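TA notes, week 10

Several of you asked for a full example with nothing omitted. So below is the full record: structure tokens for the whole chain, then the designed sequence directly under it. When grading your own attempts, check the secondary structure regions first.
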């Protein structure tokens, strides 16, 4: 076995182990681990700011972060909505039923989280579950338009905002 084959093999085992662990462990255990990781990497990890959000998106290597940032801006009314303020919900997510999730339940008709960071990680779990095969922005926007958006003008608004957000992720 070559060195590269060994690296791919062990990476596959690690990814499989993490996925299986996330399925077997309770959401509370996953939430606890995320809090520990977040707290060890930041002086004040729970304070929300768009700068902290952008930094955390880059840190966790979120797929198409400029689009996800636009979603958070649009879904929360620039972080002023009731769903964001009361639920710590950055993306207007409903509570997931058939995937790993970090939400604590449903409140005000949407998933609610103890921190905004849990909402971000939950969105990353959503991406892993449903967007794994999407390779470009066009396919991502098409997917969101078919499955995520309730507003018919959502995608055009999202595209304009996402274009402006590219500057944060260079």
């Amino acid at each position: 076995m070559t060195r590269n084959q060994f690296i791919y093999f062990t990476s596959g085992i690690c990814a499989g182990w993490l996925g299986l662990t996330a399925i077997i462990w309770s959401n509370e255990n996953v939430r606890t681990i995320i809090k520990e990781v977040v707290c060890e990497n930041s002086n004040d990890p729970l304070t929300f700011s768009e700068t902290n959000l952008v930094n955390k998106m880059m840190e966790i290597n979120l797929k198409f972060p400029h689009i996800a940032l636009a979603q958070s801006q649009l879904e929360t009314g620039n972080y002023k909505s009731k769903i964001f303020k009361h639920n710590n919900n950055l993306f207007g997510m409903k509570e997931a039923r058939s995937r790993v999730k970090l939400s604590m339940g449903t409140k005000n008709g949407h998933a609610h989280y103890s921190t905004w960071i849990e909402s971000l990680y939950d969105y990353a779990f959503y991406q892993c579950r449903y967007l794994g095969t999407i390779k470009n922005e066009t396919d991502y926007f098409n997917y969101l338009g078919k499955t995520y958006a309730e507003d018919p003008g959502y995608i055009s608004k999202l595209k304009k905002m996402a274009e402006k957000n590219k500057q944060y992720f260079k």
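The chain has one domain: 27-169. Use that as a sanity check on your answer.
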